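Sharing in case it's useful to others searching the archive later.

Someone asked me privately for the predicted structure of RNA 2',3'-cyclic phosphodiesterase, so I'm posting the question and my answer publicly. Question first, with the sequence:
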Amino acid sequence: MIQDVRSTGTPFKRLFFALPVGDSQRRALAQWRRSLNLRSGKPVPAANFHVTLLFLGDVDVAQVPAICAAVDKLALPATPARLLLDRLQVWQRANALVLEAQQPPGALLQLVYGLQQALLPLGMEAASRDYRPHLTLARDFRGQPPEAGSAPDFYLAVRHFTLYESRKGAYWPLAQWPLSY
Ligand code: 2AM
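And my answer, the predicted structure tokens:
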């Protein structure tokens, strides 16, 4: 397999943790997005829909087993089995059209905090901004959020979370941990 390599010769991967989106929900979201008739931005391919938990960026391949071991040891909170994504928003700074959770469950925020803390000893910095669970529908989006004919009430099934590698515009699952009660 072709591997990205740093100038020092060290192989690395671009990694992030996320909640995956199942096939039927991807289809439903893509259909709802079509109904918005977006006039701006680049739609995120439905195959790439996800809710980022923690973005790690470029990580040495040799660190991946230690990352997985740290998450294995984490006491995972009992996360509700569904996450309601119910607000269509434009994130102006990121130029992203997103579906956001207006009331993110505390257990999900706790999970993200737990991941951040578990990875600090491995040299992964905690994010500087507050975590806001969202699913990006389009990038390079300018202007106001479009009018939605039907309310964006998407209940995302939360059964596990996944460590993904981002490569060539696609996301590849490397490991996954169970969640929810
Ligand atoms: P998002 O667009 O849903 O926020 C993989 O690259 C994913 O990680 C992206 O789809 C993006 O998810 C998130 N991501 C990418 N770069 C990031 C950054 N610098 N900070 C936080 N999240 C980032």
